[in-house]
Amino acid sequence: MKLSLHPLRRRAAVMAIALATGAAWLPMTAGAQTTAPRVKLSTSMGDIVIELYPDKAPKTVENFLQYVRDKHYDGTVFHRVISNFMVQGGGFDQSYTQKPTRPPVPHEGQAAIAQGGPRNVVGTVAMARTNDPNSASSQFFINVKDNAFLDPTPIPPGDPVPQFEYRGKVYKDVPRASLLNAGELYGYTVFGKVVSGMDVVNKIKDTPTGAGGPFPTDVPRTPITILKATLEK
To answer: pLDDT per residue over 137-156, tens digit each?
Structure first.
């Protein structure tokens, strides 16, 4: 069977970026959890603490931590809030001016999930990006529901790939290049999870939204600001 893969439609892509099933993934053993870095986002609605997964997405975690060290997130807003999907921030200041960023970080989600890594379930934190899988820079989103359609899809070994399953359909003898070039298989890299302040996230997701700045929809009517992002440990 010939595989035909189409990019996510614009609505899904915009929701996920501009932007799992089952229980939440536990990233480490109990002993290792004490060394996992944590970042506190002090927001205008309360504090959110995120535990990061450097063992699964090391480049992504270091990228995020460098933005924290650079105080990039201080004064940014959650510019996209969709109550049954996610809350997104990290890229725009309070006047909705996009902040400059460093070069993008390589996509790590596909490799991580192939090794049993984290999925886009409630409370997990993932990198936002454009349609280019390797375009993530500073923006991130917090899942407020299980968003399995955002999960990366691992590509089995072989060329052609003997058998490949995607969204319930099985394909056989697929040229590897066609899978490597299928952007929808990359999904979104999860690099952490909210361990404190999910009540704050839920308040954010329930805030009334509308147009704001350059965005026609999904912007909180009352700005929600990250006052300060700090490394806790």
So the answer is: 999 999 999 999 999 998 88
